[in-house]
Amino acid sequence: MNETNDPHIIEFSDVTKRFGILTVLDNFNFSVAKGEKVTLIGPSGSGKSTVLRILMTLEPFQEGKLTLAGTSYHEPGGKGPFQASETHLRQIRNHVGMVFQSFNLFPHMTVLRNVVEAPVRVLGMARAEAEARAIKLLQMVGLADKRDHYPVQLSGGQQQRVAIARAMAMRPRVLLFDEPTSALDPQLVGEVLSVIRDLAHEHDLTMLLVTHEMRFAREVSDRVCFFDKGRICEQGAPDEIFGQPKNERTREFLASVLG
Amino acid sequence: MMYGYEWDTTTWLTYTISILPIILIGLTVTLKAAAAGFAIALVLGLVFALLRRSRVKVISWTTAFVVEFLRDTPLLVQLFFLYYVLPNFGIVLPAFLTGALALGLQYAAYTSEVYRGGIEAVGRGQWEAATALNLTRMQTYRDVIIPQAIPRIVPAMGNYLVAMIKETPVLSVITVLEMMGLANMIGERTFEYLVPLTLVGLIFLLLTLICSAGLHRLQKALPKAGIPLR
Fold first, then answer.
1. At what angle do helices B179-190 and B194-221 cross, to 10 degrees?
2. Which residues of chain A are within 8 Å of residue B131 when distances are taken between CB atoms?
């Protein structure tokens, strides 16, 4: 991947994304600096998850340009919905990881194997080395003692922590969190947030977080973006957005979620 | 293989005992044909299912057509075609191989639908997680999707295995000397059909009962979440 001096690792320029006749992102512009921790907030259906899914190449977009560390998602003359070859998409995916709302652990594999599988298969790492690294990551999320358990034997919070370790095992430069605590019982949210908080201290890791945990967003983010109807209505430092929101829609939204 | 044998038809018991060795030879042919046919169906069915899910339209449509064709034409026609028509084009296959192949092809069309259902039942989240981890499509099928599909497809596969075993007598029309064909020949020689046909019927019943019981145990033994293939 071409390293440029551009401090922005992610750059959306005039990206338009449609599902059939529904326009989810409309001439969307957004950039993220290397190492930046950005939280996306807003009502459901406002396009924040779509931004993450496009970055992870789970969804194609129709118009505009998106680059990751200087590499465009679309290839010149690229075919198919993604306008790029599978090889090209895999190069992009090499740098991006994702944590899902519903964890999506592999239920037929032990915790350890969930974390080891991709580094061995995709990065070609030796199994012993991958396991040693996986155990370190599981220690980081506080679950090294569960290495031989199956996902179904874990609580939701524990599963999500394993999912974070699994994503980190691929050494992503950009890590995406798509509502990582929304599917959890309230008493399990804290343990997952504390793991994400630890990751937020990693200087080089760029993080994009879609969440409804406003207090947490305020605490860990460098920047908060408020989404409405496929656009960013307002963005800025957490204290600005939560302290003195300028936009009427932002105020309404924050009033409704903060109660 | 029948000539030179004399059968004692004085009582049903002596008759049964005297034809049993020949029927058992037929049984081994039946079992071999069913095993070979089912092995072909299991492998080829998966190939059909994956090709049908290909993103290349020409491949998925062609596969869909082939599968429909195999499903919607009688096994007997396929059997005659392979055995009597292919030689016109210079392809001569031994009777047993033809029989196993015909069974395998037709049941591959059925099992491909079972695979397809099992694969589609694995949630989209699993595909997305595999994509996020940068697994290739092949790796995703092999390491993530198919292992989870296996417990879901075992019951339906078992039904097809039983159905296939029961369909092996059709092979006698292309001169494969399996159990039923032999029983029929014995009847023609002795004009006593009751004993050989009853015997064959009972052996089939026993076979399918054993199969069902085995499948039931297999189903219970398989972890519900799936089994890693490697």
1. 170
2. 56-58, 93
Assign A237 to helix, strand or coil. coil
Strands in chain A per DSSP E: 8-19, 22-33, 37-41, 63-68, 71-72, 96-99, 174-178, 206-210, 223-228, 231-236
Span B152-210, pLDDT tens digits: 999 999 999 999 999 999 999 998 989 999 999 999 888 889 999 999 999 999 999 99
Nearest to B79 by CA among B179, B208, B176, B181: B176
Whether residue A2 is predicted with pLDDT greater than 70 in this model: the reply is no
Which residues make Cβ contacts (< 8 Å) with residue A244, sequence separation at least 6?
none
Question: Taking the alpha carbons of B112, B114, B120, B126 in that order, is the dihedral positive or negative?
Answer: negative
**In this complex, which of A56, A107, A152 lies closest to B132 when CB atoms are compared?**
A56
Spell out the alpha helix ranges (H) of chain B: 12-52, 57-72, 75-80, 95-121, 124-132, 137-139, 146-167, 179-190, 194-221
Give the domains, in start order, of chain B with CATH numbers. 12-221 (1.10.3720.10)
- For B35, how many CA atoms within 13 A lie in the half-sphere containing its CB? 7
Distance from first CA to last CA of chain A, Å, rounded? 45
Question: How close B116 comes to chain A (CA, Å)?
Answer: 19
Q: What is the rounded distance in angstroms from the CA atom of residue A12 to the CA atom of residue A29?
A: 5
Nearest chain B CA: its distance from A218 CA (Å): 27
The proportion of chain B whose per-residue pLDDT surpasses 90, expressed as a percent, equals 80
* Interface contact B229, partner A, CB < 8 A: no
A37 touching B, CB under 8 A?
A: no
**CB spacing of A102 vs B125 below 8 angstroms:** yes
Are the beta carbons of B225 and A107 separated by less than 8 Å?
Answer: yes
How much is the ipTM here?
A: 0.94
End-to-end CA distance of chain B: 46
Whether residue A56 and residue B223 make contact (CB cut-off 8 A), yes or no, is no
Within 8 A by CB and 6+ apart from A52, the residues are: A40, A98, A176, A177, A178, A208, A210
Parallel, antiparallel, or unpaired for β A8-19 and A63-68?
antiparallel
Residue from A92, A93, A106 to probe the interface with B (highest B Cβ count within 10 Å): A106
**Which pair of structure tokens corresponds to residue A121?**
């298969």
For residues A187 and A170, what is the distance between their CA atoms, to the nearest angstrom?
29
Kindly report the nearest CA distance between residue B133 and chain A, in angstroms. 6
CA A239-A205-A148 angle, to 5 degrees, is 115
Would you call B129 an interface residue with chain A, using a CB distance cutoff of 8 Å?
Answer: yes
Nearest-neighbour CA in chain A from B94: distance (Å): 43
Partner residue facing B128 (CB), from A58, A113, A152: A58
Which residues in chain A touch residue B132, judged by CB atoms under 8 angstroms apart? Answer: 56, 58, 93, 96-98, 100, 167
